[in-house]
Write a structure and sequence with these properties.
about 80 residues; two-stranded antiparallel ribbon; globular; alpha+beta
């Protein structure tokens, strides 16, 4: 999973830091710091945090789902 935050859009509501504290944290009152490649164990928390962002500044790319190997076709 890859996370990208549009920091020019983020206004520091900190909903992400509340919902996924291992992936997002506030540095001071307005600066957001985040893990660009959080552990898959945090997937649900990160997805909830992205959905809760009031300005939709968090983008989550679930690489594992997109790059899953296709089933082999029977020969």
């Amino acid at each position: 999973m890859k996370v990208v935050v549009d920091l020019s859009r983020c206004v520091g509501h900190a909903q992400c830091a509340f919902l996924a504290p291992e992936a997002f944290r506030m540095h001071g009152e307005e600066a957001l710091m985040y893990a660009p490649n959080p552990d898959d164990a945090q997937r649900d928390q990160v997805l909830r945090a992205a959905a809760a962002c009031p300005v939709q500044a968090i983008l989550v790319d679930q690489l594992a789902a997109r790059h899953a190997p296709a089933e082999a076709s029977p020969s």
